[in-house]
Each structure stands twice: as C-alpha cells, then as structure tokens.
Design brief:
Blueprint lengths: L3 E4 L3 E5 L2 E5 L5 E3 L3 H5 L4 E3 L22 H10 L12 H10 L4
Antiparallel strand pairs: 1-4, 1-5, 2-3
C-alpha cells in the first residue's frame, strides 16, 4: 500500500488549533500525518496506473544484450578484470559472447 495519501474530498479542517485546507485530488500527505490519522475518510492511497507500450517497463538488458551482472560474474570467475559498477567494456562483453556462443 502506498505511504502517500491523496484527498478524495475537500474542505477546511483543524488539527491542534491549526487550519488546513484540503483540496480533492491535489492535497497529499503521508499516511502517518495527523491530518490523515484524524480524518481517515478524507484520504485514500495514491494509485498510479500508467499504461506502458508493449515491451516497455521490462527490467534488464535490451533484447539480445547479456545482463551486465551476469557478464561481470562470468568475467570475475574467468579472471578477467572488470569494475564492480559502471559500463562493462565491450571487449569483456565480446569475450562473454564468444565463451557462450552456440557451437
């Protein structure tokens, strides 16, 4: 569940003598904030529904490219020096491909 809440109603409320203006669909607050805790009927968790084009949103290397973490692990095991982060050198990627090419 989201920790950020969004107002589903609007109006003016007071908490500890302080006045808050709550605007429907605009005002947000953390779910543990007193304004949410004391007036739970005004809030609901933010829901995000973002349509993704086919194939978008997948995590990992682009199609046909080996995953960097896999290449790094292979290179380390094969005694090929490779940095633990950053761009994997193309020579290391080519060596990985050559070692894993179909006969």
């Amino acid at each position: 569940m989201s920790e950020i809440m969004i107002a589903v109603r609007q109006g003016h409320i007071r908490i500890d003598g302080r006045r808050y203006i709550v605007r429907r669909g605009v005002t947000t607050a953390h779910r543990d904030h007193p304004v949410v805790r004391d007036h739970p009927n005004l809030w609901e968790p933010i829901k995000i529904d973002y349509p993704m084009p086919d194939g978008a949103g997948s995590v990992g290397a682009p199609s046909g490219e080996p995953d960097n973490a896999v290449v790094r692990a292979w290179a380390t095991g094969a005694g090929i020096p490779v940095a633990p982060y950053g761009k994997v050198p193309s020579a290391v990627i080519e060596a990985y491909r050559a070692a894993h090419a179909a006969p």
